[in-house]
Every structure is written in C-alpha cells, then in structure tokens.
Amino acid sequence: MKRLGVLTGGGDAPGLNAVIRAIVKTAIREYGIEVIGFRDGFKGVLEDRHVLLTESAVSGILPRGGTILGTTNRDNPFKFPVAEGRFEDRSEECIEIIRDRVDALIVIGGDGSLSIAHELALKGLPVVGCPKTIDNDLAVGQAKTFGFDTAYAFATEALDRLHSTAESHHRIIVLEVMGRYAGHIALHSGLAGGADIILIPEIPFSYNKIIDKIQDRLKQNKRFSLVVVAEGAKEVGGEMVIQKMIAGSDDPVRLGGIGETVARQLERLTGIESRVTVLGHLQRGGSPTPYDRILATRYGVAATDLAVQGQFGYVVSLDGEKIKPIHLSEVAHGIRKVDTEGELLKAARKIGICFGD
Amino acid sequence: MKRLGVLTGGGDAPGLNAVIRAIVKTAIREYGIEVIGFRDGFKGVLEDRHVLLTESAVSGILPRGGTILGTTNRDNPFKFPVAEGRFEDRSEECIEIIRDRVDALIVIGGDGSLSIAHELALKGLPVVGCPKTIDNDLAVGQAKTFGFDTAYAFATEALDRLHSTAESHHRIIVLEVMGRYAGHIALHSGLAGGADIILIPEIPFSYNKIIDKIQDRLKQNKRFSLVVVAEGAKEVGGEMVIQKMIAGSDDPVRLGGIGETVARQLERLTGIESRVTVLGHLQRGGSPTPYDRILATRYGVAATDLAVQGQFGYVVSLDGEKIKPIHLSEVAHGIRKVDTEGELLKAARKIGICFGD
Amino acid sequence: MKRLGVLTGGGDAPGLNAVIRAIVKTAIREYGIEVIGFRDGFKGVLEDRHVLLTESAVSGILPRGGTILGTTNRDNPFKFPVAEGRFEDRSEECIEIIRDRVDALIVIGGDGSLSIAHELALKGLPVVGCPKTIDNDLAVGQAKTFGFDTAYAFATEALDRLHSTAESHHRIIVLEVMGRYAGHIALHSGLAGGADIILIPEIPFSYNKIIDKIQDRLKQNKRFSLVVVAEGAKEVGGEMVIQKMIAGSDDPVRLGGIGETVARQLERLTGIESRVTVLGHLQRGGSPTPYDRILATRYGVAATDLAVQGQFGYVVSLDGEKIKPIHLSEVAHGIRKVDTEGELLKAARKIGICFGD
Amino acid sequence: MKRLGVLTGGGDAPGLNAVIRAIVKTAIREYGIEVIGFRDGFKGVLEDRHVLLTESAVSGILPRGGTILGTTNRDNPFKFPVAEGRFEDRSEECIEIIRDRVDALIVIGGDGSLSIAHELALKGLPVVGCPKTIDNDLAVGQAKTFGFDTAYAFATEALDRLHSTAESHHRIIVLEVMGRYAGHIALHSGLAGGADIILIPEIPFSYNKIIDKIQDRLKQNKRFSLVVVAEGAKEVGGEMVIQKMIAGSDDPVRLGGIGETVARQLERLTGIESRVTVLGHLQRGGSPTPYDRILATRYGVAATDLAVQGQFGYVVSLDGEKIKPIHLSEVAHGIRKVDTEGELLKAARKIGICFGD
C-alpha cells in the first residue's frame, strides 16, 4: 500500500481532527505511506477535491473541534442530490475516483456514512470505518464513540450554570439536550449535573409523576427543580413533539420542541415560574475532552492498522480496553438505546432522580 | 450603627454572593456590626423573612453564581402584586419592618430595585444601593457593573464552540445573546469570539449589507460566517421581533426571536445552511469571572463604608480605578447604550466586522 | 439496619463528595436509614467526632472537590501516632466506637485506608470499601477509580497551556505529573495533550533516545518539544530522584524532583532552553469531571447497597459497565502499573511518541 | 505607506496573536497596505527571516496563546549576543534591514522590547510600540496591558482548585505566582480566589503577623489557610529569596523560591502541615480571556492607525475607555507597583486579608 485516503462524513463531532491526525502520523511514521484527505465527505470525492495530508498539515489540530477536511450531510453517492427532490446513483463514479487516487479509504462517520461505506465495500472498495456519534447511540458492538464525552460534559456544565439561577429564583429550569432516539446525553449529564428529573425517549413520562417529585421537593423546602429533557422524550401515549423546520433544511431547528412544551406545562400545572434552555449545536463544538482525544487517537491508529493489514469492510471499535474490529454489516441495524433495566439507570433512581414514570 | 440589612433584587447575576460576602466581612471585621439578610428581595421584607449573616454563613460563596439570599422580579413594595393584575402600595409597611430590624439597608439590584431604593430613600429610609446588571446597560455614571464580564465571557466561549461547526459544515451560525435595549454583550462577545457580523439594537440592520459581507467572505474562500445578534436588534424600519410568552410569565421565553428570524432569512437569501443558538439563561449563571469577583467585592466593601458613614441615598460606583458614590436620583434615567461613534465600535469596523448598516 | 457510617481517608480526590452524597441519598430514599459521617478519617472515629448527614447536608456538594468530612493521612488505628515516631494500636477502641454509633461503616479511600478496612473486617467489623485513587494505580480488579479522569484532564489542560509557550519560544518544556509507581496520568495526559516524549516509571529512559527524538523534530523544523514526566520516572540503571522533604512531613514536596533534573539535562545536552513545571497538588483539586461525578455516584450507591445487603468485607468496583464487588483481601496486593505491551501504549508509539527507550 | 512590519519580543503572553491579527486586518481592509512579520523578534530581523501576513495567515489565531511569529529574550540589536558573555552593537544593520523591507515597524513587547524600539526611534526608524506584560507592571501611563487578565484568571482558578484540598486536609497551602517587582497578580488573584494571606514585594512581611492571622482563623474553627505569594515578596529586613538557576539560563527556574520558604517556615512555626505550588509558566499560556482578546485587538488597530498616520515614536495605551498614545520616552522609567494606599488594597484589608504587615 502506498496511499491511504480519509474522509469525514455526517455531522461534525469533537475528536474528528484527532482521528485524522492519528491516521496521518501512523501512516507516515509506522508504515511509511502517504495520506490524502477528501474534502466535505463523499461530495468532495465526486468533485475530486482532496489535499495531501502531511505531518505539518495535522500539526496542532488535536485539541480542535470540527474537522479540517470539512463535512456535509448531503453526500450519499448512491442517492446523490442533483436537484430539488431528485437523486442519482453516482456510486460507480465515486468508486472510480477513490481507486484512482488511493489504495484504501478510511471513512470516519456515523450511521449514515458507515452505511455508505458498507455498500461501497460490497461493491469491492477497500474501505475501513471509524465510528462517530456524539449521541452515543450508534450500535457498534459495545463500542464507545468519541464526541459523547465532550457533549455530555458541556451539558453538565450548562446544568451547573443553570443551577444557581434555578435556586436563586425558586424556578423550574428545563434543559433540552440532544437525543432524538436515545437518552444517553440526558441520562449522563443529568446524573453528573444533579438533575432532579430526567426525561428520555426510552421512558415515556407523565406530568403527574413529575409534579409529585416537584411537590416532594417543596416539602423538603427545596423550591427549585432542574429538569433535563432529551429532544426525543415524549409523554405516555403521546407523539414526539413536532419541531419547526427551517425551509429547505433537513435538520429541524430545535425551537418549540419538547423542552418548551415541558416548561410551559409545568408552569401551568405547578404555578412555579419555569424556563427552558435549548443547548442545540453548542453540544457539537468545542475542544474535545481528554477522554475523547485519546479515544479518537486510538481509533485513528487502529483504522490505519486495519487498512494496512488489508482487513477491509470492518469498523474499529473499543470494547473495554481492547480494540476489536466489527464487520460493517453489523453496524447500524438500529439504535443503541439506554438500558432501562441497567445498573446506571437504577443507580439514578436510587438517589431519587425521577424519570417521569 | 449596630445592624445592617442587605437584600438582592431583580434577576440573578454572577457576583451577588461576592457582594454579600464582602458586606458581611467588612461589617464584622472593620466595623464590628451585625448583618442580616432579607430573603427574596422586598417580598421577603414584607413577609419578615430574614437570616443572620455570620462569617461562616458566607464562607465559600465567593466563587458561586446566584444569590444565597434568593431574589424575585415581583417585589415592588409600592406596587405589590396581590392578585392577578391587582397591586397595592405596601411601602409603609416595608419601611416599618426594615426600621424594626436594621439601622440601614443595602439594596443590591438593577434598574428596578434601585428605583425602589430611591423611592424608599425619599421617604426617609437609610438606604445604600449597589448596582448590578449583566447587560452593562445600567446608567450609573461611568460605572462598570459586575456580572457583565461573566456574561460576555460565556457568550465568547459559545462562539468558540460554534466556530468549528460553522467552519466544518460551511454554514452560517447565528448566536442570539442578551441585550433588549443595548448591545454590549453582543459587541464584546462578537469582538472576542471573532464574529463576522454583529447586530445590535443601536444600529438597525439591513439584510443586503449582511449578505454583502457573506459574499465578500465567499470570495476569500471563507465558506462560513458567524453572526451575533442581540435580542433587541431590528431591521431598518422594522420592529423588535415579538417573542412568544409563557402564559402568565413576565419574562418572554426567547424562542422564535430575532435569532431565528435572521437565520431563516439568511438561509433563504443566500442558500447557505443556517443554524441558530439562543443562549438565554446560560448567560446569567455560573461562577463569576475573577474580574467580576473583584468588582463585586469592592462594591460590597464600598457600600458598607457608605452605610456606616451615614451617606445614605447613594449608589456605589467604580469610575476608572476609584469608587465614587452617585446619588440614587441620577441612576436609571434611561439605558446606557453602546456608543456607535465610540472607539471600540470603530475598531470593530476597522477589522472588518459588519454591523448590517 | 438503622444507621450507616461513612468516612473518607487518605489524600483528597475529586469525587469524594459525590460518593458521600450518593450514600446519603440512597440510604435515606431507598432504604430509609440514617447516615452519620465521621470527621477526618479514623482519627475522627477515635476522637468520636461525627455529624448526622441529612439530605440538606449533602445538597450542592456534587460538583465540589475535596471532602466535606475532612481527611488525613495519619490515622491508622492499628498504628496510631502518639508522639514523634511512636505509635499505638488503638484498633479495638476504634471498633468499639464504630459499633456504638453505627451498624456498618463505608470506608472511602485508597490503598492505605482499604488495608485498614480489611484489617477491621477481619476483626469482625461490618465494613464496605469504596476505592479512590487519582493515580489510577489501585489494583482493584479492572476497576476504574474516580479522581483519575479529573487529574489527567487538568494535566492535559496544563499541556495545552504550555504548548503555546514552548512553540513561541522554541523551548523544551517539561511537565512533571503525579505517579510515583505507575505512569497512568503521564501516559493519558501526554496522549491527550500532544506530548512528544512521555517518561513513566514502567519504562526506564535514556537521554540518548530522548535527544534523538528532539533532533528528529528539529529536522522537521519543529523547534520545540513537550515532555511529560511522571514523578517516579527514572533513567536506565538509575534511582528514583530523591526529593527534598519539608521537615516533619510524610509527603515530599515535589521540588528538585525528576522534572527539574530532566529539564536541566536536556538543556545541557541539546543547548535548547528548557523549562519545568511541577503540577503538584493542583492535580488533586477542582470540580470533578462529569465522568468522575457519575463514577463516584455509582460507587456511593453500590456501597450502600452492599452494606444494606450485609455483604461486608467487599470493595465496590466497576468492571466495564457493571458494578462487581471485590473482596477486600484482593485489594492492594501491589500497584496497577501501565501495561507496557498494551494497546494504548502501542498506539502512542505508533503516532511517534517517544518513551525514552 | 505600502508595507508595515511587525514583530513580537520578550516573553510570550496571551493576546499576542490577537494583536497580530488586528494589525493585519486593519492594514489590509482599512488602509489597503501589506503586512510582513519578522520571526523571533529582532533576532529574526538580523537574520532577515520574515513572512507575508495575509488574512488567511491570521485566520483562527484570535483565541490562541503564544505568538505565531515566535519570540525570544535574547535579541537586543544594540547588545546582540555573539558568544558566551560577548555582545555586539548590530543596530545599524537592524535598521537597514527593516528600512529595506517595510515602511514602518510595530514592536509588540514589554519593557525590554519597547526600550529597544525607543532607541531605534531615536536613530530615526519609523516605529510604533504596543505594550505587553502579563505582570501588569509596565509603566505606560495608566494603561492596561493584555495578558494580565488571563494570568490572574488562571492563578484564581488554581486557588479554587487548592481550596478544597486545603480545607479537606486542614492545611496551609501556599501558591507562588509571578511578580518579581510588583504584586499585581498576587493581589488580584488573591482577592478573586479568596486568599487569607497575600504577600507582595511592595509590603515586606513578618511571620508573626501571618501566624496571628492563622491563629485567628483557628479560633473561628477554620483549620486551613490559603496564602498567595508573589515571587518577589520578602520578609521585613530580608532579601529577595535567591532562586536556583538552570545553568546557562537567564531565567531562573522558580524552584526553591519564596513559596517553598514560606511554606516551610509556616509549617515549622504553626505545626500545621503546609504545601506549596509554583505556577510558573502556566501563567503565560492558554487562550486569552475575552477581556484580553478585546484589549489586544484594540491595541492592534490603534497601533496600525498610528503607523499609517505617521505618528512614530509612540506606544498605544488604553486610558479608561480611550486609546491614548504615549511617547516611547515615557515608558519603562521604572515599574508600576501596587498602590499600597490605593482603594483596592484597602478593600482587601477591610475584608480581613492579611498582608503580613
């Protein structure tokens, strides 16, 4: 092997740059091969936009959020958008360009990008995947994914900030965090930030239970409550709250979402002033935590190892303290949800956190 | 003087606890007098709820946000809410309780609380004011107010976080910050966080000018833009964007506000994906910055000095490096706005920041 | 069971308060039993100093470093210091007081405190252990211990800070971190902070190898280097660098230690200006990271569960995602060292980090 | 004017990059002139090493510590080091190269670099100065200098961290901070971080006074004390503590300095365990605070304005809210010391902080 390609796909996440840096360093120092980066995911492949990644190109990027290669959500080569609502299969062209430029490709991405990688692998492209999701909901064995630690750390910091306002004003403060299908960020940040109530998609909630908890706190002379809500949380028997869309966007703006609904209802039902904060994109950005930097670095090294060893069609994955490759076909058959019978959630209940059920 | 009273009024701000601590320490150590704190502003006075503030009561509160005394926005004794939409003048009762409990009162608060303090002073109450506003829009001479440094520092951190997402995804990212009548937080955080466009109430904007700036950046191959919008910013000839209210609340929830409007319009007009983040109450909370801790401490010491010296009817104020008392009658005749001809704003223009005009 | 006791022993660590809070909440809410806290470890037991831990006593302590119960390093009841260099066995007295006051005791501590707990258990005391060590070197199965994530996160932040000075001044900067017998903090912070050279007790180093690495960087036009040194690192064939002691202290002041030695030698051998920073106690303090807050909370819950179930003589331990009790006799038979053949260290080598061997 | 030069001299400080960025942006956008940067201060001038600073060269550097241009302490062209202990006057050569390359030069630096700038100005070089010192001890009128806010903010964070260890272990903790001739960092961080005792060069201390304070705290049942010591603090009648030098270095390693001495003495005199932490270079690094980013940006804009307007021989300076140029001859005639009769220090005394006098 002489030349390795790399691209980043889907939403940005803290740690992408750390993966890129590790790939480049490992390729050059350990294996003496070159690395080129395609810009803006598969879109950049199809437009043949790429850059040679030297060591100096990746110097200093370890602590930086985002991706120096750029990324996009609209780059599926099997269903490439050509006009409003029209798509074309440009996968052959994509494979051709990749084969022309590099001997193997590392795809760093989530659910969507790894599915594309799998389809390309089925068509014979030598590809290795590197899993990324800040929601922690990607089902890659037991693998941890980088970005999650940074995301819930920021949500925890937000709770720390909101705590003093809630307490000083005797208010209910609702924090809406990411998690459309799984409540990992809500559960972890809620535990770490001392939330009183945590609402997640896995456990439909009822307002009565929440109000019981708030009343219980009032009896203990605690006149404020902190509520963390995952954006996909819903009432028992209810639907996910429809969110408003910015015209032409495939990513709903998280306004008028579940956080606002919950705050409004709780104010109405308890008479206690309630406020909502929606974290939104703040959860995606910022310098990765040390934990995420290390995990991302390990994934970059392991993906390069796999590529050089010719073990294509796999995703790298950290299981406990060991890196284990998982076949791309096993990825993304569904979402990894919070284990509602798991020890973590039970611990949360034991210290009195209410899940609305 | 034997006993000093203190209360915190209006919205919470980082540094309130530092003021309280400084008052208590100065009163006890320097003057050998006692301090009691009324809970929840003037509401707590009328309900005669108070607590003796010993040194151990204020131990460890310097770095904490919020106020250990509690606060509220609904406590004007001259216009005290008794039922939905009905008010009573309970100022005499308020003065009586205060006189019964303490020899003088320090009121820590913003515009509203200091106006009340002024009216009480006119009725003969020995009162000293301590100014607070995180928007920096309180017109107390040239005085700086604590809380502002912390608020714009957090807005700057938010811009740092959003920067990598904007750049990786080639998006327009809009950050809505506090500032209904003055754009200090937007201007300062925009400058410190490297914003490309800053929209403030003092300078009505036109979308054409913003788009020119974005196009200009595209020509330089900068495919993303960061926009900071004060919540009170408005288009030339336009109105302030009406915000939705949570029923029964006097504080509008900042959803569907100017930030969302700007993001939506810019996406429509440029075709570039745009996202909005609304900081909201996150700006109020958190540990005060070292700057704010020192300023708050100085104000607490100075307010105690004034009270003990019998200089009532004044507000403490830091002018340059000196504490200067200002008469309560001079406070709050309007808002301190951003000086649009000032050197700071001119510097921002010289480095290419667009204000939409 | 009616009453549970808890104490914290040994050096303080971020997360101790989170454990205490979780114990109190679980005991009261889940089991309806009371908790009392002994002050200052076993010393406080012998002096019968304790406090009732209500929910309000642990309110707000989750994000705070240190321990509200106090701690000490000089409290072994089996070898209690009575005068300069003289000790007494006061274990019987200790057991008696504990039995008088509570039905079972949870000991939160490291190596030393857990050994004491084990000895007390052998004498029949109903005791449960909760492991703590910020060095991550406690050998409790595969268990993670809280405090470590916070410690290496701060060391990483320090490297981020030192990086710009090193680069601007073209210097060698040496950061000395904790780790007398194991290099976990050095390895993790070095990886996360982009160190070029990491020196740990497990791998004796030679200056020649380090200089080769520095020369290699110079050839790439990188005129600075970042070195992380664990305090127990040593040259091949060398001894651990003897550190000066503050008279009468059992804890060496980390001045004139290995960090300074390495900086001095590298400056002499390369002619490049070199500087050293010793992190010392800064690594112990501060608010625990969200990861550590969750881990500490889980440990607190699990320890309370064990105590209530009467499973005495065990230590709680997190293995993967599951809590598993480990017998106290299995703890502390030696130190958990960095696995020099492990995947983590190999990954570090592959991206070019030099370990001096 | 067609071309402006810029260099950074002396120790690095947070904000240098923000100045460089502001100069480049202002020069290009406002005045349409080019900027080149000399590398590594005047040393780089003499070696004719420079780089064209385009807008893309300064993109993204606002939040970064250090200087992209590099810097050095050994670059006085009037006394340029040619061999061990031998110097040459190379100022003519320096002026010639600068005149060849640019129409005017902006020197960003402290005491030393601004003195050189003054001497070069006297020889006719068109030069403008931009003041920098993280100690805040540069005597440029009433001017604030960037870097100071970041430095004392970090020292405050360190105190926050050490506080919990001090309290948990009932120890005296000593933090040694920068300040060889002036105690600004010690005073500000001590006030903001809740120190009990602050020792600065301007106020010689006696151990008796410190011990009185510690005893006083013990009586209040406060069994720990936080001491901040500026590196230049000294006992009444004593000398500055001689610090060990790394051979061949002009910058003493701050080990075995006053911090260690004070900790050792206090432990001996009180019998309370004492520990010391020396912050050292950590105070120089890291991302500048928002305050420093704004100040540095204003200075960069103002320096460019002066250069383009031909107002040479001046230093930019912020007085209150206005930029005022000060003549280079007025700079650096001594050190700006802490005003021991000033309102800030008096406020510190009133809340009970002990200065050892």
What are the key terms here?
15 strands, Rossmann fold, homotetramer, 357 residues, 7-stranded mixed sheet
Commentary on this structure:
The first copy, chain A, is an alpha/beta fold and 357 residues long. Chain A folds into two domains: 3-146 and 288-324, 3-Layer(aba) Sandwich (Rossmann fold), CATH 3.40.50; 150-285 and 339-350, Phosphofructokinase domain (Rossmann fold, 3-Layer(aba) Sandwich), CATH 3.40.50. Chain A is built from ten helices and 15 strands. Chain A has a seven-stranded mixed β-sheet with strand order 3-2-1-6-7-12-15, sandwiched between helices. In chain A, strands 9-10-8-11 form a four-stranded parallel β-sheet, sandwiched between helices. In chain A, strands 4-5 form a two-stranded antiparallel sheet. In chain A, helix 5 (148-169) packs across helix 6 (184-193). Chain A is elongated and about 70 Å long. The N and C termini of chain A lie far apart (56 Å). Mean pLDDT of chain A is 92; it is low at 244-255. At the A-C interface, helix 1, helix 5, helix 6, helix 9 and strand 14 of A face helix 1, helix 5, helix 6, helix 9 and strand 14 of C.
Give a brief description:
The structure is a homotetramer of 357-residue chains. By secondary structure, chain A is an alpha/beta fold. Helix content of chain A is 37%, strand content 17%.
What's the CATH architecture name of the largest domain in chain A?
A: 3-Layer(aba) Sandwich
Helix content of chain A: 25-40%
Number of DSSP helical runs of chain A: 10
Calculate the terminal CA-CA distance of chain A, rounded to whole Å. Answer: 56 Å
Shape designation of chain A: elongated
Low-confidence stretches of chain A: 244-255
Strand order of the largest sheet of chain A: 3-2-1-6-7-12-15
Instruction: Count the beta strands of chain A.
Output: 15
Whole-number average pLDDT of chain A? 92
> Biggest β-sheet of chain A, characterized?
7 strands, mixed
Instruction: Name the beta content range of chain A.
Output: 15-25%
The ordered H/E elements of chain A are EHEHEEEHEHEHEHEHEHEHEEEEH
**Main structural class of chain A:** alpha/beta
Largest interface, C-beta closer than 8 angstroms, per-chain residues: B-D, 50 and 51 residues
Rounded to an integer in angstroms, the radius of gyration calculated over CA atoms of chain A is 22 Å
Oligomer: homotetramer
How many discrete structural domains of chain A? Answer: 2
The CATH topology of the largest domain in chain A corresponds to Rossmann fold
CATH class of the largest domain in chain A: Alpha Beta
